[in-house]
Write a structure and sequence with these properties.
By secondary structure, this protein is α/β, with parallel strands linked by helices. The protein folds into two domains: 2-245, 4-Layer Sandwich (Nitrilase/N-carbamoyl-D-aminoacid amidohydrolase), CATH 3.60.110.10; 250-448 and 492-510, HUPs (Rossmann fold), CATH 3.40.50. It is built from 16 helices and 20 strands.
């Protein structure tokens, strides 16, 4: 049996566009004499559809799109991920087996996620029936998403898992080993077909693949690329060399997430503030690769506290990338604020004067965005966003925050990767102490712990869910740990108002939403 694995990049809710893509892949697979074409989870509507599933109109139109696809299923079978109704105002997250223009069987998801990123349990009913389908003499154990971890083969000839698993940096090997282990345990080939591309804050890596009954990978699609891969169940195929995830995957995930956010929204151009610092440098690189250098504008907005090297670094970066570049000094505007609030153009030196500089810059960038049609992107990283070291209505302005899920220490790792062949990001940007340059001789470490310590504590809290005692047992100072965690909690109101972040580092499956107002403090 010849099978086509299609790792589709759908747009959530674009039923006509997704259906057209699916039909084109079906016709391509038919032309290559495939027996079965397998698409990812909810590929007809895009994943995750979330609240669209509460719309009766959307569900109705999904059915119409399904019938449109089914009319093209002739001479080849299709396993398609979509939502179906149980006839009692309930929906299943299903894998439909279509042949000869008819739905001949289906399986649906049992293990529904109940997290903010997915909300599956709010929209779907858990499936309680058999998950084994018969196709052209073969018994298929069909799983949707995480069901593959608990499903039983029931003497199946083949396991097929259709999925929409978001990418998280550093988790590929673990996930790959789990799938390989299932195939080896069951002693039959396992086909895994995953969505690819970006939808909202999530990025999907694809990497659809096939494991033989010994758990060896024998067919594999590329990371972050929409494509179709063929596999013949009757052929003896040699194992492929293992894929090794590295920092390039993380950079590619950010580029894909940004590119799809812009293209699927119909946006073309981006503007950002270039400070001469490492965060804005990384964001500029991502935007230039995602959108093309001609579609990116960097704006340097110096004040009295801006250093000469920052101006030089910002300009050098823009020239190296070939993006558009402007300089708009904010000194005169800042003086007017000082006159209004101080009575004189001389500073008092408090946090209000620091923040107003960030807000002046935010307003200038939003003016450019409104007048010229550029989409403003924020340059905050995870370390700053977690503890509130950012100015609301200032550097937090924007429609997207590409690196808001990337720790500061990892920002440097990605920048060094970008510079692997030539100096794109000026060397001085990577070696100078980080500074917001909002007061004389300011350094980030004046307000924050060293970034290696801060990121370690945040990782233990956000990624690993450790307690304070467990962090202390690892050698970290209790007072410092408690200070960081309390900063995280006090900053919840800012995160609620922050731009959408491309989530490729923090564990989506552990996402929590904290109350803005509460009295708990770590001690």
């Amino acid at each position: 049996m010849r099978i086509a694995l299609v790792q589709l990049n759908p747009t959530v809710g674009d039923l006509k566009g997704n259906a057209l893509k699916i039909i084109q892949f079906i016709e391509k697979a038919r032309g290559l004499n495939c027996d079965l074409v397998v698409f990812p989870e909810l590929s007809l509507m895009g994943y995750p559809p979330q609240g669209l599933l509460k719309s009766k109109d959307f569900v109705r139109d999904c059915q119409a799109a399904l019938y449109r696809v089914a009319r093209h299923v002739d001479g080849v079978g299709v396993l398609l991920g979509t939502a179906i109704s149980d006839g009692e105002n309930g929906l299943y997250n299903a894998a439909l087996l279509i042949e000869n223009r008819e739905i001949v069987g289906y399986a649906a998801k049992c293990s529904l996620k109940a997290l903010s990123a997915f909300d599956e349990a709010c929209y779907f009913k858990p499936f309680r029936e058999t998950d084994t389908l018969t196709f052209r003499g073969h018994r298929l154990a069909v799983a949707v998403g995480d069901d593959v971890y608990t499903s039983e083969c029931r003497d199946a000839d083949l396991i097929i898992d259709i999925s929409a698993t978001p990418y998280r940096y550093g988790q590929f090997k673990q996930h790959n080993d789990i799938l390989a282990g299932i195939a080896k345990k069951m002693g039959v080939p396992l086909v895994y077909v995953n969505q690819v591309g970006g939808n909202d804050d999530l990025v999907f890596a694809g990497i659809s693949r096939v494991f033989d009954g010994q758990g060896q990978c024998i067919a594999q699609a590329r990371p972050f690329v929409e494509e179709m891969v063929l596999f013949d169940l009757n052929d003896v195929q040699q194992p492929l060399p293992p894929l090794r995830e590295d920092i390039s995957w993380l950079y590619k995930a950010l580029v894909v997430g940004v590119r799809d956010y812009f293209s699927k929204n119909g946006f073309k151009k981006a503007v950002l503030g270039l400070s001469g610092g490492v965060d804005s440098a990384l964001v500029a690189c991502i935007m230039a690769e995602a959108l093309g250098q001609e579609n990116v504008l960097g704006v340097y907005m110096p004040s009295r506290y801006s250093s000469d090297h920052s101006k030089q670094d910002a300009q050098a970066l823009a020239e190296n990338l070939g993006i558009q570049y402007r300089v708009i000094p904010i000194e005169d505007i800042f003086k007017e604020y000082l006159k209004v609030f101080n009575g004189l153009p001389s500073p008092v030196g408090d946090v209000a004067e620091e923040n107003v500089q960030a807000r002046i810059r935010g307003n200038l960038l939003m003016f450019i965005s409104n007048r010229e049609g550029w989409v403003l992107v924020s340059t905050s990283n995870r370390s700053e966003a977690s503890v509130g070291y950012s100015t609301i209505y200032g550097d937090m302005c924007g429609g997207l925050a590409p690196i808001a899920d990337i720790p500061k220490t990892v920002v440097y790792d990605i920048c060094n990767y970008i510079n692997r062949n030539r100096e794109v990001i000026p060397h001085n940007t990577l070696i100078k102490p980080p500074s917001a340059e909002l007061r004389p001789n300011q350094k980030d470490e004046d307000s924050l712990p060293p970034y290696d310590v801060l990121d370690a504590v945040l990782s233990m809290y956000i990624d690993d869910g450790l307690s304070v005692d467990e962090m202390v047992d690892k050698g970290y100072d209790r007072m410092l740990v408690c200070k960081i965690l309390n900063m995280v909690q006090r900053s919840e109101y800012k995160r609620r108002q922050a731009p959408l972040a491309i989530r490729v580092f923090s564990p989506v499956e552990k996402a929590v939403r904290n109350p803005v107002v509460h009295g708990y403090r770590w001690e």
